[in-house]
Amino acid sequence: MELCFQTIIMSLGRFQGVDSFKIVHKMLIYSVLVGCVLVLACTDSGTDAVNYEKRAIALDKSLMCPVCPGESLDQSQTQLAYQMKSVIRGKIKEGLSDREILNYFVERYGNSVLLEPQTEGVSLLVWVVPPVGVLFSLVVLVMVLRGKVGKGDNEDAMGQGLKEEPGVAVFLDEVGDRGWDPREFGQDEANSTRNEG
Predict the structure, then answer these.
(1) What is the C-alpha radius of gyration for the chain, rounded to an integer number of angstroms?
(2) How far apart are CA 81 and CA 87, in angstroms?
(3) Using an 8 Å Cβ cutoff, are 113 and 64 in contact?
(4) What pLDDT is attached to residue 8?
């Protein structure tokens, strides 16, 4: 490789001798190192900018616009939302953590500015009550369904027991042979009382 550099330098005719070659060789190495450092510095700052913007977008999505209920800063088109977004980006550049930025907005606008309720104190109930309510409802549903299935089995068993008794079986056969339907009997009686009155 050194032979290649020497050939290039000698062909240019500017430098003669070994000392000039060493100087050019060192300058070339230093320029390559400086170029590598610059490339790394540029890619690093680009990554930081992307990370800052990702953090800002995540914070925009976790804060509610005080003017537009139910809309995050990310969705809102109001002037206040734009101002809050710029404050978020400024706080990120100042080096504040996400929690500190959220606390900054909670101090100014109250807990209602957070899209997700806090998981501390009384707000913990918002996270605990719904799953417990659903679980309780499922347990009650299972108990009711098991009770109905158990009752249905008992009624069928009792009906079979009555049919097996000799007196009841004879009565049911006689009623069935005469074409008498107990359901119709109640209706006939109701119709006759209407006609009399």
Answers:
(1) 44
(2) 10
(3) yes
(4) 59
